[in-house]
Amino acid sequence: MASAQSSGGGTELGQFLRARRTQTRPDQVGLTVGPGLRRTPGLRREELATLAGMSIDYYVRMERGKETRPSPAVLDALARALHLDDAEHQHLRELAARAARYAPEPPPPPSRTVRPHLKLVLEALRPNPAYIISRSMDLLAWNPGGLALYAGLADWPATQRNLARYFFLHPTARTLFPDWDELVRGCVARLRSLAGTAPDAPDLTHLVGELLLKSPDFAKLWERYDVVGRKRIQKTFHHPQVGVLTLSGQSMNLEGTPGQRLGVYTAEPGTPDHDAMLLLDAMAPEPARHRDMRREQQPHSQP
User: Fold this and answer.
1) CA distance to 116, 170, 261, per residue, from 157 (Å)
2) pLDDT tens column, 114-133
3) Backbone angles phi, psi at 15, to 5 degrees
4) Stretch 219-237: mean pLDDT, rounded?
């Protein structure tokens, strides 16, 4: 089983190259495969080295994490040989840059504090479900619909509420999302991309270690080392309380925060999806802080 930890800066670079090599078929890169069974899935090391115009010994050192300062020309040649897309090519560059400056001391986890004005934004977005997550997908703040949309997530303690953990470990997740397989592939690709450039960050290693241990599905996807996932504008929920609803989703980075993101869902007014969204907001338990906030915003009557 794969480990969430990294023993050096070149390790992640080597893992990424190996994953892309073993998932690239010879016919995809113009090679003719002779008769007989190939022992190696995908390309052989010597085939990739030849395609990239480098010695097999040099490439093997890279894949084993012993060569940590490949030139930009070498990285570009490997990207061309493996037919990497722009996002994968950029990830390869970032891994190489990290390998060259590797420091064994893990960075501290980012703050989980959400600024008060951002909580006001969540309240103002009602009845649209909205929430704020950390870079490792911890749910940090939400409005009632934002939490209730993920059925059953409210049953977990607040410190355990993480969307990746929910997707893989909560029994409701597979029935809530009809496209669960595609959803989790994108989730793992996002975490893989982040962990590739910060593999020793505590918030990531703890989450990834837990999911590797508890979810075989996560472990298989983690081994693939995909760093690009499809992002769907619309998402369908088979919700146990309000039925089937399809919402348009949008996420955005929050300026001036340690990697926090805002997620919000919307539906066209007057549609059944919008009605279901309104019902979800009305049915969701309202935290005390939201009730107090709404009272404060109401105009006070004059004596």
Assistant:
1) 21, 13, 21
2) 999 999 999 999 999 999 99
3) -65, -40
4) 86
Q: Give the per-residue pLDDT at 61.
A: 86
Residue 283 · residue 137 · CB < 8 Å: no
Q: What percentage of the chain carries pLDDT values higher than 90?
A: 48
Indicate the pTM of the whole model.
Answer: 0.76
Cα–Cα distance between 226 and 294 in angstroms, integer?
A: 44
Show the tokens assigned to 31. 């090679």
- What is the DSSP annotation of the chain? ---S--SSHHHHHHHHHHHHHHTS-GGGGTPPP-SS--SSSS--HHHHHHHHTS-HHHHHHHHTT------HHHHHHHHHHHT--HHHHHHHHHHHHHHHT--SSPPPPPP----HHHHHHHHHTTTS-EEEE-TT-BEEEE-HHHHHTSTTGGGS-GGG-BHHHHHHH-TTHHHH-TTHHHHHHHHHHHHHHHHHHSTT-HHHHHHHHHHHHH-HHHHHHHHHT-------SEEEEEETTTEEEEEEEEEEEPTTSSS-EEEEEE--TTSHHHHHHHHHHHHSPPPHHHHHHHHHHSPPPP-
